[in-house]
């Protein structure tokens, strides 16, 4: 039995969808970011980073989306969410997810989380102005250099798909028109139609 | 046969050391960052991101350090560089490496790579002033919350160790005294004494 700590609108959605796609037995706990619950003593005892997602398991708590996604895929191998028997293909999956985590998500984070890296209002404003360009450039690279289709890795759905869908949810707020990357836009629609995705989005809204 | 594209002083060192620790058959190609060789048309054909590291293999090019490290560990299982038969333990390895990649390296990158996220000189100066604090906070979290010792994951050397050593090389230039995290400081010395590490550092200097 797993317990996923999440907040709506965050990258925890990728793990939430993946748990559902895997057919995992799990519960969720929603954190109230407006009340800064992620930095409460109670939650810091679970995840000292003060971030979501965190996945409580029988053996301890896991954090960091790329690690959690592979772990879920390995724990539910019959769901076939990653090429577990092919190290090179798995590395390609991991490379894509690592790019989302350390470049795309980081670019996006400069819109509202500038205080992680600077102190002045003028710097925050400068960072915000760059968002459409930086996030847009990431998605252009995905569309033009990394894309296979219809899923991220080609014919087979993998743990890259929920993660891309999650990050693509932020495009509108980031001032990037998803239509400028039509393959990603098609993928977004495909994902939104999956029963697991619908169920999770409903649960996070409720 | 692998070919590693790297530049001295970059996070490519982690993959370089890991290839050596694995006993891999590999060659290297050094990129001249001062001449902006990472953005030459020739290199962009290898890695469209214009970054290092990149690992050329018989099946194609891999990028992103966390993905490459697991791939090397899986390709050379007798080197025992990761807990490949234990998904939870592997997830802990991946979680640590993902933190280095998406939080610690990103914090460090705001010293010289501010132009990735902003345009104004005042913003770059603001970011630079934050470096000792942000990078220092990352290493304090590693020391106080994640540490097992003597290696990152405890008694066994893993792919976390070359990566931490690589990022810790930047501490001095980032204005963080490694002695303020004595366990990380001890680890740094342990790593520097390994024959594979000495050999790779010599090769990158030559």
What does this structure look like?
2 copies of one chain form a homodimer. By secondary structure, the first copy, chain A, is an alpha+beta fold. Chain A is 51% helix and 9% strand. In chain A, strands 2-1-3-4 form a 4-stranded mixed β-sheet, with helices on one face. The model of chain A has no long low-confidence stretch (mean pLDDT 98).
Order of helices and strands of chain A: EHEHEEHHHHHH
Query: What is the distance, rounded to the nearest whole angstrom, between the alpha carbons of the first and last residues of chain A?
Result: 22 Å
| Main β-sheet, spatial strand arrangement of chain A | 2-1-3-4
Protein chains sharing the most extensive interface: A-B, 47 and 48 residues
Question: Count the strands of chain A?
Answer: 4
The residue fraction in helices of chain A comes out at 40-55%
Count of individual helical segments of chain A: 8
Low-confidence stretches of chain A: none
Percentage beta strand of chain A: 5-15%
Write down the overall mean pLDDT of chain A: 98
Specify the structural class of chain A. alpha+beta
Assembly classification: homodimer
Largest sheet of chain A at a glance?
A: 4 strands, mixed
Radius of gyration of chain A: 17 Å
From the spread of the alpha carbons, the general shape of chain A counts as globular
């Amino acid at each position: 039995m797993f317990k996923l700590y999440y907040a709506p609108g965050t990258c925890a959605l990728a793990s939430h969808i993946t748990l559902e796609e895997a057919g995992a037995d799990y519960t969720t706990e929603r954190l109230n970011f407006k009340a800064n619950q992620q930095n409460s003593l109670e939650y810091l005892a679970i995840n000292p980073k003060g971030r979501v997602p965190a996945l409580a398991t029988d053996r301890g708590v896991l954090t960091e989306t790329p690690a959690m996604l592979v772990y879920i895929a390995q724990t539910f191998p019959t769901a076939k969410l990653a090429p577990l028997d092919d190290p090179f293909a798995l590395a390609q999956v991991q490379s894509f997810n690592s790019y989302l985590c350390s470049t795309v998500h980081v670019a996006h984070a400069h819109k509202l989380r500038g205080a992680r890296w600077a102190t002045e209002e003028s710097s925050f404003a400068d960072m915000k102005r760059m968002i459409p360009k930086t996030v847009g450039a990431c998605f252009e690279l995905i569309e033009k250099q990394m894309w296979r289709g219809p899923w991220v890795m080609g014919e087979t759905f993998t743990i890259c798909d929920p993660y891309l869908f999650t990050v693509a949810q932020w495009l509108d707020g980031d001032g990037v028109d998803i239509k400028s990357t039509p393959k990603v836009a098609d993928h977004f629609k495909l994902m939104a139609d999956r029963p697991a995705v619908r169920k999770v989005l409903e649960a996070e809204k409720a």
